[in-house]
Amino acid sequence: MASTIKDVAKMADVSISTVSRVINDSKPVSPEARRRVLHAIDVLDYKPNEVARSLVTKKSNLIGVIVEDIGSNFISQILRGVEEIGRMYKYDILLSSSYGDVESEMKFANLLAQKQVEGIIVISNLHNPKLEYKLEESKIPYVIISNFYEIERFSTEIDYEKASYEMVKLLIEKGHKNIASLAIRRDYDRTFEKKKIEGYNRAMEEAGLKKVNLLVEGLEASDIEDEKENILDTVKRENITAFFTSYDTIAIHLMNMLLDNGYKTPDDISVTGFGGSYISDIYRPKLTTVKVPYYDIGAVSIRKILKKIDKKESDLSENLVLPSQILERESVKELK
């Protein structure tokens, strides 16, 4: 049978409240009494009830994390940053995956609140206003991280417009003049897709080049296939030599579709991605892309929450912009 706090108090010849003070380091205890209590805890292998302890100290040292899909590459990178920084500050992570279900996100938010977590981080590309309202109502410090939707409250992100502008400028410097953009249509005005295309448009306008904006419904190969005829017609009509795409996944599905229809990357058409996911480095040709610092986004986000918990920050309203990087690889051809 597991030892209890009463067993510790009896062996150390002190009161239960003295044992509690030693465990929680809440009030002064004489060195001799502390020594006896710690010795008793060690001999009896006593494990404090962490839930009860958190109710007393108001500290659970737990951060709740709700993710859309643990298998997503960008989520796993962010999660690594969250977990490693949390561990540095002696916080454990309670992880739940909604697998794209908004009601599951609501259920997990309730569960995490019951577990006395001190902060909540949501890493998801779902649009769930009910979840934001629920988190606001709970008074628990929280951060929502998305690489698709713009977040109105605190967020850590890159300058999507600037990064896209610089990528298109690179294509222009490589001699490309007929450049098309390919982004996601869904909720366009509320997402980073709008900023990415604004960057593309600005670079094309400055160079006096014609803008060719194409849209697909999502990230799947089937979404590219659904727009295949329009994409191929545009390639022929506008003599497209390069595509600026808004995600690595879109870029790779596009390269596959183009190859199936007689266009090889980069010999016939150059393609760029966005994100810097691991697949961009192992696919052939290796993808020229914008590297988003997802690990740093996770690390900065949990640090912001920990500062809020320690009352070193008054709110979570300021957006933080991190630097991005263009990774030049094999999917872009320089035109002579």
UniProtKB/TrEMBL annotation:
Signal peptide: none annotated. Residues 3-57 form the HTH lacI-type domain. The lineage of its organism: Bacteria, Bacillati, Bacillota, Tissierellia, Tissierellales. One of its GO terms (molecular function) is transcription cis-regulatory region binding. Keywords: DNA-binding, Transcription, Transcription regulation. InterPro entries: HTH_LacI, LacI/GalR-like_sensor, Lambda_DNA-bd_dom_sf, Peripla_BP_I. It holds the Pfam family LacI. SMART domains: HTH_LACI. It comes from Peptoniphilus harei. This is LacI family DNA-binding transcriptional regulator.
